[in-house]
Amino acid sequence: MAGTGVFADILDGDVYKYYADGEWKNSSSGKSVAIINPTTRKTQYKVQACTQEEVNKVMDSAKTAQKSWAKTPLWKRAELLHKAAAILKEHKAPIAECLVKEIAKPAKDAVTEVVRSGDLVSYTAEEGVRILGEGKFLVSDSFPGNQRTKYCLSSKIPLGVILAIPPFNYPVNLAVSKIAPALIAGNSLVLKPPTQGAVSALHMVHCFHLAGFPKGLISCVTGKGSEIGDFLTMHPGVNCISFTGGDTGIAISKKAGMIPLQMELGGKDACIVLEDADLDLVAANIIKGGFSYSGQRCTAVKVILVMESVADVLVEKVKEKVAKLTVGAPEDDCDITPVVSESSANFIEGLVKDAKEKGAKFCQEYKRDGNLIWPLLLDNVRPDMRIAWEEPFGPVLPVIRINSVEEGIHHCNASNFGLQGCVFTKDVNKAILISDAMETGTVQINSAPARGPDHFPFQGLKDSGIGSQGVTNSINMMTKMKTTVINLPTPSYTMG
Predict the structure, then answer these.
(1) CA 326 from chain center: how many Å?
(2) Which residues lie below 8 Å from residue 250, measured CB to CB, with a gap of 6+?
(3) pTM score, whole prediction
(4) Which one is catalytic: 54, 97, 102, 264?
(5) For the Aldehyde dehydrogenase domain, which residue ranges apply (predicted)?
(6) CA 351 to CA 363: how far, in whole Å?
(7) Which of 25, 152, 203, 476 is buried most, with the most CB atoms less than 10 Å from its CB?
């Protein structure tokens, strides 16, 4: 169970501690932050409300620990990461339990997230040894006008202290996707988990603690964003920010200063369906892409742009599959579970009401019980409806009928988002042309949008983000280039 056994140290009474200097601590504030179970809508857990002074101490420790860690051999860093990955997977059950209770993630998906996270940490360790173990050698006479009198040696060195801020929907996986690259590259890391998902993240951090990482190298501070959020992101001790979430990231980018940023800020992922598409394949991917984890994924299908000539058939196929989705508690492994909070449910309901007032066709009856919203397909959605543009982050999916491919591309590109999209057609040449025209970081051909496998590049355009993720890209992003130039008194040529 959560907070027991090897995890007993992280809990004091009914409040989970924060992690600093290799120890689990209570905040001097004497205050806590409640975490509401989305299913019961009652307080499930409590975490420490850390102070700004505690953040300062964490940053000082992180800076000191990083200096020593940067001198730790690459193979040793990798060895500790492999150990943490094994511990994480060994204790998947209690961490998955937290995911079920904190964010209403279906039980089987919660276990999958933890196992996937362990695999990601191990892969990152291996990849880091490969790409950080190589440097580059340049000679001066490759540039016009120069003799071979200079040898340039370049290598990647760590940035320093990385601030990692993952989102509620993958508080373990999207945390380790930042932690592992930072550590293998020789950085220290300060984690600020989301409130919903904080206890899952604290359990995950304890797995790194049990692996034996040096004190101060990894820290995890919890608390109210209103009290320590800006203080963290604007802290002079931070050398890089990796953030996944919503439009808060835009505000962070304006305040952060001259440091590298890695941000993924959501999307309105379009699914363009052509007349020659395999409609059974499309329908299956719409269900998987639009309704898994109740649509609370940045890479969920958010709008279907289907050619008018095949729209009726496709809508019927999707309706049949929606009717088979199970709705209920995450403990029962239902397909559709409560959304993360009452405010999220209210926002989704607002989009639904707007669509109804403006004449969208409801393929199912709209139904809500607390935070639980039944899956809903909206047909005949028009561009003047909010749902056509806004990201619901819930199990509501709009269908816009189009009369040309160009119309579909135009709608996709008119969005302020540009994370992912997908196109369904049997004509691969046409698919490539459409992919090139879509202003998104990734386009999936004949499959729903997805983040992963985790070593694939993952990036957004426009308001969907800055920089690129994926194991290799994250490692490279969390390093900088260092060059040493050897100057020779006379030109030197091999075998000359």
Answers:
(1) 26
(2) 265, 463
(3) 0.97
(4) 264
(5) 24-483
(6) 16
(7) 203
